[in-house]
Amino acid sequence: MSGTVQAVAASAIHGFSKPRLPSIRLLSGLGVAGDAHAGVTVKHRSRVARDPSQPNLRQLHLIAEETLQDLAAAGFHVAPGDLGENVTTRGLDLLALPRGARLHLGADAVAEVTGLRNPCHQLDDFRPGLMRALIGRGADGEVLLKAGIMAVVIAGGEVAAGDAIAVELPPEPHERLQRV
Fold first, then answer.
1. Residues in domain MOSC (predicted)?
2. pLDDT band at 27 (very low <50, low <70, confident <90, very high)
């Protein structure tokens, strides 16, 4: 499995959207250099309020460009970075990856998938109805979360639009992604 980095984004402040940048630097064990969510312990404000000592399993947020295209087809204009993601991908079914899959981004960076992004009310604050558009149902009635995936940074490096993404799957049995 392989794909491409379509866009990268980061923000030093806790806001919803992140501005696109020419490149970002991933820092091993921390996340994106200069991003408000970088760190060893959790940085998401609601999670910090509950327990600031939790490990940060949400150092890097990735979403597929194909998801943004699906949203556009449903009437929602959403550009890369708008949903707070650090990396917008193309050609990878991110939501189908198992927990522990490693994403090799560009020449040096490696991120390990920890789980699904949990959609929250801020999506509707950004665009009314967006949260519902990012939560679906599978054929078996199972809830499908489509707001991207989260990862931790295993190896640092520079990542930019156009960089290749290679997927390294963990040993089987594979564990389905859950909310983190």
1. 19-168
2. very high
* Tens-digit pLDDT profile for residues 67-109: 999 999 999 999 999 999 999 999 999 999 999 999 999 999 9
Which of these, 112, 116, 123, 99, lies nearest to 16 by C-alpha position? 123
User: Which contiguous run of DSSP H or E holds residue 105?
Assistant: strand 102-105
Separation of alpha carbons 156 and 4, rounded Å: 18
> By 3-state DSSP, what share of the chain in percent is helix, strand and coil, each rounded to 5?
15, 35, 50
pTM for this one? 0.95
Residue 92 three-state SS: coil
- For residue 6, CA distances in Å to 28, 38, 128 come to 22, 21, 26
Quote the longest CA-to-CA distance of the chain. Answer: 41
Domains of the chain: residue spans and CATH: 2-168 (2.40.33.20)
Pairwise CA distance, residues 90 & 160, whole Å: 13
Cβ neighbours for 174, distance < 8 A, ≥ 6 positions apart: 98, 99, 100
d(CA 164, CA 3): 6
The reported pLDDT for the residue numbered 120 is 86
